[in-house]
């Protein structure tokens, strides 16, 4: 929320005892879960034969991901060790302070993620702080050369197939490219960028349109560039609300806020899922996380939020859901012990024996034996 800036290996289908034990553990936690064996067909909302009733839950090895903070690939490896399995996707950011980070992408550490076994979701700014460029200039094609340089640099690094999350959180007034004041310019600028990047030899990029933020009154579809220019439709979700206060325990508040704002609110998760299905696109959640805030307006060590997110992701057509493991959402710094113990059970390969360990188990899967 105003934050910043290939597929993993499947779990062995032969380990039926582990899969069933995990399902039983989740039921004990109040989570419903449909086991899908490897090789079973998975229908997406973009499939005309798909309905809500025949969608099947996919293992998190196919959609689970992470933002690793500033730790680079080492941070990804540490998170994989923490959850007990590989991640499928990693969300990264290009610095939005200066065009040099877009124009010369090879020179700023991104190459360390080239040719990794997980998909990359690369957050790319449409405007930068150290310039007075506008959405209207982008819509006129005046800024296309920046994105030609970007595409050429990514292809040269062997990253010509990454997912580009262009102008992320477009409905947020905290972004430099806030779309509400000029939605038509945002949409045309998007089309200019996608056309430019696709034209570079060797490019095979996909594009993630990151629209709703939940608690907003403006319809982000006004800035939708059209189905030919979009591959994924996404939303970011954080456990942060003015319903939370230091004297208001978050469990009850979470349930009320989740239902009213995150799930059913204007342009929130349900809206995003419906909009994606209507446009025959998979949905994505490229950023999500708990919030441990000093003002008390984050849910803190909130296991209810984790369960709600798990329930939504596994019952919807979510292509990737990348946990923001940094800043106020970090699960591995010791500040969110209950959530840190539960997360690898829901979203990783650990079993319920991990819950209640102090400190949280950060190694490979713990077993009750």
Mean pLDDT: 80
Main pleated sheet: 8 strands, parallel, barrel
Number of domains: 1
Give the strand order of the largest sheet, numbering strands 1, 2, ... along the chain: 1-2-3-4-5-6-8-9
CATH superfamily: Glycosidases
- CATH class wording: Alpha Beta
Care to count the β-strands?
9
The shape is globular
Low-confidence stretches: 1-56, 358-369
The name CATH uses for the topology is TIM Barrel
The helix/strand class is alpha/beta
The appropriate CATH architecture is Alpha-Beta Barrel
Helix content: 25-40%
* Estimated share of beta-strand residues: 5-15%
Termini gap: 41 Å
Gyration radius, to the nearest Å? 20 Å
Number of H- or I-type helical stretches: 10
Order of helices and strands: HEHEHEHHEHEEEHHEHEH
């Amino acid at each position: 929320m105003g934050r910043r800036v290939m597929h993993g290996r499947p779990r062995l289908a032969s380990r039926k005892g582990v899969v069933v034990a995990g399902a039983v553990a989740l039921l004990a936690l109040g989570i419903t879960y449909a086991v899908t064996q490897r090789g079973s067909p998975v229908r997406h909302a973009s499939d005309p034969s798909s309905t809500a009733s025949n969608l099947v839950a996919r293992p998190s090895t196919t959609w689970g991901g992470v933002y690793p903070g500033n730790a680079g690939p080492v941070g990804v490896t540490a998170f994989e060790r923490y959850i007990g399995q590989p991640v499928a996707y990693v969300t990264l950011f290009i610095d939005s302070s200066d065009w040099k980070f877009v124009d010369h992408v090879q020179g700023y550490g991104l190459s360390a993620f080239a040719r990794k076994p997980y998909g990359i979701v690369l957050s790319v700014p449409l405007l930068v702080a150290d310039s007075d460029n506008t959405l209207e200039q982008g819509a006129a094609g005046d800024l296309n050369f920046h994105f030609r340089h970007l595409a050429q640099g990514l292809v040269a690094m062997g990253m010509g197939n990454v997912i580009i999350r262009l102008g992320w959180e477009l409905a947020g007034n905290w972004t430099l490219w806030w779309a509400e004041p000029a939605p038509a310019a945002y949409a045309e600028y998007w089309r200019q960028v996608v056309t430019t990047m696709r034209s570079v030899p060797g490019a095979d990029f996909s594009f993630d349109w990151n629209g709703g933020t939940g608690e907003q009154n403006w319809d982000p579809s006004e800035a939708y560039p059209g189905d030919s220019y979009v591959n994924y439709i996404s939303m970011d979700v954080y456990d942060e609300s003015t319903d939370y206060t230091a004297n208001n325990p978050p469990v009850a508040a979470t349930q009320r806020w989740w239902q009213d704002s995150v799930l059913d609110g204007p342009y929130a998760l349900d809206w995003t899922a419906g909009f994606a299905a209507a446009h025959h696109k998979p949905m994505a959640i490229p950023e999500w996380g708990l919030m441990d805030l000093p003002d008390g307006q984050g849910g803190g060590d909130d296991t209810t939020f984790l369960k709600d997110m798990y329930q939504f992701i596994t019952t919807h057509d979510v292509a990737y859901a990348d946990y923001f493991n940094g800043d106020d959402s970090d699960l591995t710094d010791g500040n969110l012990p209950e959530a840190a113990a539960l997360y690898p059970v829901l979203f990783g390969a650990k079993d319920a024996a991990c819950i209640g360990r102090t400190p949280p188990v950060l190694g490979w899967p713990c077993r009750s034996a």
